[in-house]
User: What shape does this take?
Amino acid sequence: MRQIEKIVFMGTPEFAVPALIQLIATNRKPHLVITQPDRKKGRGQKVTFTPVKKIALENNIEVFQPDSVNISSSLEKIKTLNPDLIVTTAYGKILRGRILSIPQYGCINLHPSLLPRYRGPSPINWSLFNGDQVTGSTVFYMNNHMDAGEIILQSRIAIQYNDTYTSLSEKLSEKGAKDLIEAISLIEQGNDSPAPQNDRNATYSRLITREMCKIKWHNTADQINNQIRGLAERPGAFSYLKGKEIKILHAVPTIQEHSSVGKVVGIEKFEGFYVSTGYRLLLVKEVKPQGKKVMTAYNYSLGANIIDETFTDTP
Assistant: This one.
C-alpha cells in the first residue's frame, strides 16, 4: 500500500473549488495550494482572491501565487516540500517537465472532457458549440504534452438540451472532484492501471476570444443556439441591435422559417422575440442589453421598438 501524505494542489477558478473541498473532506488536505496571482476585477478594479485561494485560506492551507510556476524559485519551493503527489485542475498555466518529475507518484490532472477529445483550454465550451450529447471528466497522469498523458479513470455524463456553460461546468467540476479522490485511492492501492490515449482520435479546443462570441446570423438556429449555450452566462454571445451591443443568454430554436437573416420578425407575448437565421427562426428568451441588467427578451422588446430591425456585426 502506497502512502500519499503530502499533496500539492494547483487550481484557480470556481471549477477547481469542488476538487479542493473534496481533498479536505477526505482527509487529504493539501500541504500547499498554488494558484494564479490575484487580479483586479469590476468597475472599482478591486483586487480579488482567486476562488481556490479563498477556500485554502479558510482551511489554513499555505497559498503560493507565483507569476510563473516553472521558474527556479518556484521549483525550489515545491522541491523543499517533497510532495508525494501534485493534483491540478484548471490551474491556468502549463507545467514544464522539471515540475512533473518532483513528486514520487507524479502529477495528475482533472480535465473536463472525454480525452483525447478537446485537449486544450476550453473543452466545455467547445463540447456545447458542437452540440455534443455526451461529455465527461478524465483524470490522467501529466506528461510533457498537453493533456496527452495516460488515463487513470474517466466518467461520462449526458448533456441536457438546456445545459449552458455554467450549468455543465458545475456538473463536471462536482463529478470530477469525486473522480479525483477515487483516482488517488487507486494510486495508493497500486490499481491505477494507466491507459495510453489514442492520439489519432485527438481533437483540440481553443481559448475563447471576443470574436468567437459574436453571433453569425447566417448560421442555423441550432448552431446559434449551441453558441449561446456554450458562452452563457459568461462571457455571453453577443450581436448589435440599433447600434448597441446586446448579449443573448437564452434562446430556443424553432421549426419556423423566414427568408431574412438577422432580422427581428415577431414578438411572442411573455416568451420573447423571433430572429431569422440562415435556417429557421430563433426565439430569443433572455438578454443583457448594453449597460443594463439581465432581463427577459419580452420585457426588453416592450420598450425597444425592435420589430423589423436587423442585428449587425458592428455598432
Notes: The two ends are 64 Å apart (CA to CA). The chain is about 25% helix and 25% strand. The mean pLDDT is 96.
